[in-house]
Design brief:
The protein is α+β, with helices and mostly antiparallel strands. It is 49% helix and 11% strand. Helix 3 packs across helix 5 (217-230) and helix 13 (392-413) packs antiparallel against helix 15 (438-445). It is elongated, with a radius of gyration of 28 Å.
Length: 456
């Protein structure tokens, strides 16, 4: 009540009379005073115009709905707009990272570097409070998209002034990535989309919308911009929208599979943006370390390992290392598929389920090695017997250690807790150690690796 009265007295509220009546009514109610006569009473605080603040709140809700439709339900939703200064209104877990939707957050808080411009001399940094902003934190670093609702009508004209304001926000940020975002403006009876692109990959939209029309198309476009800031591809999006298993064990494995795919996708997309020579030292060091098996790995497995190594080794010590850890697990899973499950599917057809997660693969392989009667386990057992070079005792030991890796490192890495440098280093050694890592041992069990790495 004190803040409301202060805003009224300072003239910060347009058409203050009805708000003052409301404030007086609330104050009288709290004091126990009678506030209304008996009987019906008409009292409307809004006329035919759409209130500016309501327009901003409405855009917040509709953008949240559109993002939810695209990537699934949020992991967190704030209970009140009063919490906007404490953090985001919504948070989605997108696999090896998060996507957060903010309402009127400080511009300086949206990037790790803060803002560029300061008053000299004066009150300090040049501030700004975009109405809506999406921040993403993944293995590719901080992503940002800014959305600014403006309840102004621009009949038949591109809202250039508002677009320049959006560019001004980005111009005051220490943010190395291209500008991504949109303005929402009032376009009665017709949805519009004016698109701007820059040579460096920036993308801005002027999205005209009408609250009475109820069309979601402008917000769907904005949701895609939010996801663009996170660097997710179509396969990752489809997985994020997949229905979750009800069983808690299966749900944990399913989440790990989705977040693993998203992590690999995000790392690969980010790697595609940097000069190819940037990865050369990491590729050479990795090929040297794994030279006992490197030539036998296919191109995709090599790429997964190199990108995971690059982002893991170059991340700050206090950063989340879940993405690189999931990337290495994905490389191990790919080798398992290429050496066992895909060849078995070519031989036995539909008996092999090629959509299984890594946990499912390990369960099936365990059944095959134990001689169980499940159709898929029997098919895998038949394939293993047909391969004369397989060292079955070694494969059994690898299976046991792979289950531990999945339980202790891969599945926890898919949760929202930060994976520390130390945890990543331990998981990395289990998978990638050139002598006793799971990857080398698996290839060795198929006769595809030297007993010890060759000496230079």
């Amino acid at each position: 009540m004190e803040r409301v009265n202060a805003r009224l007295e300072a003239g910060h509220i347009a058409s203050p009379e009805p708000y003052k009546e409301l404030a007086d009514w609330v104050a009288a109610t709290r004091n126990g005073t009678a506030v209304a006569d008996v009987g019906d009473r008409e009292w409307s605080f809004y006329d035919a115009r759409f209130d500016t603040k309501l327009f901003e709140i409405w855009c917040l809700l509709k953008l949240a709905d559109a993002i939810t439709a695209l990537i699934g339900a949020p992991a967190m939703a704030a209970e009140s707009l009063a919490q906007r200064h404490r953090g985001p209104m919504y948070t989605w877990n997108i696999g090896a990272g998060s996507l957060k939707l903010h309402f009127q957050a400080s511009l300086a808080a949206l990037t790790e570097g803060g803002v560029l411009w300061s008053f000299e001399p004066g009150p300090g940094k040049l501030q700004g409070f975009p109405d809506l902003a999406v921040t993403t934190d993944t293995v590719a670093g901080r992503g940002l998209a800014i959305f600014d609702p403006k309840l102004r009508r621009r009949p038949g004209k591109v809202p250039t002034e508002e677009l320049y304001k959006l560019l001004g926000y980005f111009g005051n940020l220490k943010h190395s990535k291209p500008p991504v975002g949109a303005i929402f403006y009032y376009s009665p009876g017709k949805a519009t989309d004016y698109t701007l692109i820059s040579d460096d990959g920036g993308e801005l939209h002027a999205l005209g919308l009408d609250p009475e029309a109820g069309a979601m198309t402008p917000f769907e476009a904005a949701a895609h911009l939010a996801v663009k800031a996170a660097g997710l591809g179509e396969r990752s999006l489809s997985l994020l929208k997949s229905p979750r298993p009800e069983d808690s064990v299966d749900a944990g494995e399913f989440r790990a599979a989705i977040h693993q795919e998203v992590a690999v996708d995000a790392m690969q997309r980010e790697a595609d943006r940097i000069p190819p020579t940037t990865l050369t030292p990491t590729r050479k060091a990795t090929a040297t370390s794994l030279r006992a098996i490197w030539p036998q790995l296919d191109q995709q497995a090599q790429t997964m390992i190199v990108t995971a190594e690059y982002f893991g080794l170059n991340a700050p010590g206090n950063a989340d290392h879940s993405g690189p850890l999931l990337g290495l697990a994905a490389a191990f899973e790919r080798v398992l598929n290429e050496q066992i499950f895909h060849p078995a599917a070519a031989k036995y057809g539909a008996a092999i389920n090629l959509t299984q997660t890594l946990g499912g693969r390990l369960h099936t392989l365990d059944g095959a090695l134990r001689g169980r009667n499940e159709p898929e386990a029997k098919a895998i057992a038949g394939f293993l017997k047909s391969q004369q070079n397989i060292d079955t005792p070694s494969l059994q030991a690898i299976l046991r250690d792979s289950k531990n890796m999945n339980r202790l490192y891969r599945i926890p890495a898919a949760h929202s807790d930060i994976v520390t440098f130390e945890t990543w280093a331990d998981g990395r050694d289990i998978i990638l150690d050139p002598r006793q890592g799971l990857l080398v041992r698996l290839m060795r069990s198929f006769g595809l690796a030297e007993t010890t790495p060759a000496t230079s």
